[in-house]
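Notes, p. 3: input format for complexes.
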Amino acid sequence: MGFEFQKCCSKVWKPLLLLLALNAAVCIWVTRADPRFLTEDGIAEFFDLYTKNAMQMDEEYRLGVSRSVQESKYAPEGFSDWQMFREIYSRIEYIEEFGGQLQNVLDRTQDRLAGSSGYSQKYYENVIRLYGHVKDDAVLGLEYSRGWMSYFSYRAGDFLLLILIVYLSSTLFTHERISGFLLILRSTKNGRTKTAVAKLCVLTVMVTAVFLLFTTETWLIFWFRTGFSSIRNGIQIFISLQLCPYVITVGQFFLLSIIIRLCAFIVFSLIASLISVSLYHPVAEFVANTVVVGSSYLLYMTRSVSPDGLLANIGLFPSLEVIPLFARYRAADFFGYPVSYLTILALVFILSVLVLLSAIILKYKIGISMLPESWLSRISASTGVFRKSLEGVVPHARYERLPSLFAAEVYKTLFLRHALLCIAILFVTKLFLSVAAYKPPVSYSDAVYKEYMQILAGEATDEKRMYISEERNRINETLQNFEDLQKQYIDGAMSVEEYQEILSEYNTAYSRDIYLARVENHLIYIDTQKEEGREAWFVYDTGWNKLFFQGYDWTLFFALLIPFCGAFASEYNGTSSSYGFAGILKTTKNGRRKTMTSKYMSVVCLSVVWIVIWTVSDCFFLVKAYDMPLPSSPIASLETMAGVIPSLTLWQYALLMFVVRALVWIVFAVLVCSMSQILKKQIPVLSVAAIFTLIPDLLIYFGLTALRNWTFVSLVKVTPMLITNVPILLYLGVFVFVVSASTYYAGKTWVK
Amino acid sequence: MKLALNGVTKSYGSNLALNAFTATLEPGIYALLGPNGSGKSTLMNIITDNLKADYGSITYTSDEGVSENVLKMGVRFREKLGFMPQYPGLYPNFSIERFMWYMAALKGMTKEVALEQIPAILKAVELDDVPRHKIGALSGGMKQRLALAQAVLGDPEILILDEPTAGLDPKQRISIRNYISRIAFNKIVLIATHVVPDVEFIARDIIMLKKGVIADNAPPTELLKKIEGGAADRHARTLDFLNGKRGGTILPRFFLFSCIPGKFVA
Ligand SMILES: Nc1ncnc2c1ncn2[C@@H]1O[C@H](COP(=O)(O)OP(=O)(O)OP(=O)(O)O)[C@@H](O)[C@H]1O
Ligand SMILES: [Mg+2]
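Output follows (1018 residues plus magnesium ion):
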């Protein structure tokens, strides 16, 4: 046990420090003071002042002394007292209304309770009981409640912790296997169950320790930077927890949040360990864990469809955020009895811990084959059987080809590192996603728009202008005449059939009205563009817009990342050696410089192949769903693209976008390859690349919106950068420079 | 042709793995004998430039008498080199043949030469009957022989073999020993080993290494004489240690091995 602990600590402290530093940076950044707003301290002081002599200050406010926007008796330079008072009064109002709000809930429930029976009766009784307690016992004191909400909604640390936990469980179980030590360990007396238990204990202790470290760090930074309001206030003081059905204070909620989050992380670490002992393959584990996190996020997202759904409200993400769990009373029907989601969560937690624990121990004890081959190799072994049976039929000549180093690298990537399998899986995923993303539009609105745009397609000629104004007249007439006709019908001057015809005509006109307006606007747009010397046409642009504003392609990201992260790294870690094959490779004539060149070449060529496949598939789906008409119309025909390189046509711009994007992806693949040499291990490469691409977006997610289009992701998307006038060439240049520098460094360390 | 090692020193932190190793190697077989952790692999990794020495230099002198630092020579030195690491990591998905051909490409051989050498070498290490087997499916001893096969491929002038006979059965051990002595003509061969009989009759010099320091450097016959005479307790003790004995004489076991029938080529 102590031994396991040592092993683990020695491997973990470096990434731990790194992630802690990152967390600190993000925290500090998130809590930065915005000069446009009052400082938290300033407001808090004012609140103190107010509570001391409320009467006098109320009077001042009423007399209008502090009401004018310029006045700043209490407020600091540049702000008015009015703002301060608004803060105070909005809070007083909130507290005063709180009882009323709850009473509303209680009244409504009482009404429903009257006519209910069985489960819903019990449910409503519970609601009344709980909120009755809250109404009677919750104490909301007047204060400037600060710090806590931003602390509770800080998410970046959680992601870092998830990454760290994946790494932890992977070090505990997988590295041992890779190093071949598992074979020794499993054959010793205490090797199996006891080691598994020891490992799980270590895992739990480490996860707890790391979690507490992160929590303390985050809390301290928030405390220093924003400060926290009283912990004795009722939790309902926060608007997002106004309907929390329990009588708890902020402090109690904080402790609860720590416990719940810790539990969530422990369950996740157990899941990650189960994945570890099932797969024993670092890259496969990375993918599987991403799938776990991704799917729980998707489940969490279903709350936008059914806010009270069970799956949306218990699970990894609600537990990490804690607030959703307490936002209001939610319960599920359990044989006629309402069981609150919190109870279910606790049960799920206990059950999953038990199931996962036994699964891990069992799997560790008996599950895996003793051969140092992973399940991936087993799959390829089964294809090997097939190949062998083929060989039985078709007699093979002896292998007598002098392979080019390039071909050998391609072969290694495709078969040795299972890139083919990985790409196949990712591409299938991509196809599924594309089918969903590029559904042919079925909406009536798009059909109408398409019809107009097809009729008008091309330059704005006089006939087209005529058509538009005629259409406008027709629609307006229909709309105007409708009332008269309706009156006629009511007066009995019209038959039902006639009326129905008129009604449908009216409906058509009514719904076309908006889309014709859109067409008219486009005509105006065309004219203004002409004034600015740009040509614009009528084009059915739904598909073009989809193409130019494509989202970030995660499948391609992983398709480039996963196969290439081992480009150099896999040479270092063979299954049972200290040097891997690099020891031999580097002593051969062509093993250094030439092999390196062919490694980079193979990465570039293969990534070109992936990119082409991905792009072709995108184009195929787009053309199938949206026709993509008039590819030779000028780019300004799209209102969204006005002013972006006006000399291009649509297809030229699409081509340009594809080329730039492909270039960025290729450079990214090269970066992954260089990282593979610099870091010498796959998992750090995966982590660094993930962080490299995600951090800017996380920062934006947490408020740095000014840099929204300065990220790698938007560089890949191309269009957003062009539209917002980010100097894309400069950005690309810097990116290429960074990659070249790291490639140069990688090359130096490989060739030495 | 000459390979001169001059004051090669390497330490891992405070652990001095190799201390001022100095020797001049000429064509012939050299045995590097020493207990575990004496720095044999470290020395070999330094010669093959898998590891950087802290101090010292290695100089290669060609037949024409031109001396040059091997690090400066780079590729020109590596093309003369064949290396078998102690724990070679081989690609489990490659078949034996594909692997050998890949090695031929890495060593920059032409197709004709490869076509001539590969089957011959595979025959010599007795892997010619399973050329299509995946490396991952080979036994430990077979992998060991394949690692040797790739080292001797391309007829390198300098062969560095780190425990080539570890894990081989007695019959393979003898045949590999004979094979090495057969191809050693006009080559510098450096063999790290713990097993004296493996090198006893084929080595021109035995370099005894202890804790990173050369304890002795002499032809095997001289070394044996010293032990027989009991003059140098030091060597006897070293050899005792190597053969897993604490005290007593080493000779009976020594001769037991030598009596195994086989053709020895000196
Ligand atoms: N990567 C390393 N990091 C730290 N110390 C090392 C490393 N590799 C070797 N050493 C140390 O260097 C010394 C020499 O090791 P080396 O592997 O050269 O011994 P060896 O003679 O090959 O032993 P063996 O007979 O077991 O193969 C040992 O004391 C070892 O602990
Ligand atoms: Mg060694």
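Residues 91-155 of chain B form one domain.
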